[in-house]
Amino acid sequence: MRYEWDERKRKDFLDAPRVFGGATLTVADDRQDYGEERFITFGLLRDTVVAIAHTEHPKTIRIISMRKATRHEEKSYFAEIDYRLEADSKDEG
């Protein structure tokens, strides 16, 4: 998978691919009509939950923004990851 972003806007996006390599929670960003399908992915970056807004294309993920997750988003992220881990352990047992 290739990642891209506007270099003039953000240099810290270089860290974004690390988030996608770990445990993530992705939801559709349908807060408004952006003219394209957008997503928000939550994941860990250096022990901090971050939210990455992005679009997905067949071979490319275009990063739009990245920020620290809110407390509510962080709780939702950990709840989903815990749920997945529990489900996986039941499948193995």
Compact overview of the structure:
With 93 residues, this protein is an alpha+beta fold. It contains two helices and five strands; from the N terminus they run βαββββα.
Task: Characterise the protein shown here.
There is one protein chain. The chain has 93 residues and is an alpha+beta fold. It contains 2 helices and 5 strands, in the order βαββββα. It has helices at 16-20, 71-92, and strands at 2-4, 25-28, 39-45, 48-56, 60-68. Strand 4 (48-56) and strand 5 (60-68) form a beta hairpin. The longest helix has 22 residues, at 71-92. The chain is globular.
Keyword list:
5-stranded mixed beta sheet, 93 residues, alpha+beta, 34% strand, 2 helices, single chain
Describe the SSE topology:
Layout: E1 2-4, H1 16-20, E2 25-28, E3 39-45, E4 48-56, E5 60-68, H2 71-92
Parallel strand pairs: 1-5
Antiparallel strand pairs: 2-3, 3-4, 4-5
